[in-house]
Amino acid sequence: MNPPFHIAIAGNIGSGKTTLTRLLAKHFKWDPHYEDVDNNPYLENFYEDMRRWSFNLQIYFLTQRFKQIIDIRKGKKSIVQDRTIYEDAFIFAPNLHEMGLMRTQDFESYISLFELVNQFIQPPDLLIYLRASVPTLVRQIQARGREYENSIRIDYLKSLNEKYEKWIENYTGGRLIIFEVDQLDIPGKPEHLGVVIEKIQAELFGLFEK
């Protein structure tokens, strides 16, 4: 039998992480770990006033994801995780800082805390990156109908995409699969989900092959 492993799904807002997490958990009988947006005390305030709430939001995400990773590594079941701790540190926080939406002293404090936390965590056994163009992101954000996401700016999504590409290009944490969301309808077409599952199975077999 394979040991329990940690699969993480990364991608921009609206790329389909939560949907894929749910479908993979169902297919492989993995335990899903979702990003808790409904109970996030800062998210709505953040989209209304990013400059005011950016630091609070990022600290909240950092603590929640650190707790998630601790639980994942202590557990005996395979986990599929919706979004990683690295995306906040390498994409969202730097993007907020560069856009003038997070003060330099707050950004530096956040990075110092992340670097401390990073000493105590391991990267996932397999990272899945969902690459999506801005039009696809906008379409999928609109389709899910979260009111507080209506104020998300196109330039914000574009800047995030650029940072995702840079991060993935330099990712050295372990195994990585990239799926092109523009070319897939994972929830709508079973054959597309089948392709995704086949690639993940092949990667996991190589991962644990002796």
Notes on the protein architecture:
- The protein has eight helices and five strands, in the order βαβααβααβααβα.
- It has 210 residues and is of the alpha/beta class.
- It has one domain: Rossmann fold.
- The chain has a five-stranded parallel sheet with strand order 2-3-1-4-5, with helices on both faces.
- It is globular, with a radius of gyration of 17 Å.
- The two termini are 12 Å apart.
Describe the SSE topology:
Layout lengths: L5 E6 L5 H12 L2 E3 L9 H6 L1 H25 L4 E4 L2 H14 L5 H15 L7 E6 L2 H11 L9 H16 L5 E6 L9 H19 L2
Parallel strand pairs: 1-3, 1-4, 2-3, 4-5
Helix pairs in contact: 3-4, 3-5, 4-5, 4-7
Question: Quick summary of this structure?
Answer:
The chain is α/β, with parallel strands linked by helices and 210 residues long. It has helices at residues 17-28, 43-48, 50-74, 85-98, 104-118, 134-144, 154-169, 190-208; strands at 6-11, 31-33, 79-82, 126-131, 175-180.
Provide the β-strand percentage band.
5-15%
Question: From the alpha-carbon coordinates, what is the Rg to the nearest angstrom?
Answer: 17 Å
Mean pLDDT: 90
CATH H-level homologous superfamily name: P-loop containing nucleotide triphosphate hydrolases
CATH names the topology as Rossmann fold
SSE ordering: EHEHHEHHEHHEH
In whole angstroms, the N-to-C terminal distance is: 12 Å
Biggest beta sheet summary: 5 strands, parallel
- State the helicity in percent bands: 55-70%
Q: Give the strand order of the largest sheet, numbering strands 1, 2, ... along the chain.
A: 2-3-1-4-5
CATH level 1 name: Alpha Beta
What is the number of strand segments?
5
Shape: globular
The quaternary organization reads as single chain
Alpha-beta content class:
alpha/beta
- Low-confidence sequence ranges: none
The number of helices is 8
CATH architecture level-2 label = 3-Layer(aba) Sandwich
What's the structural domain tally? 1
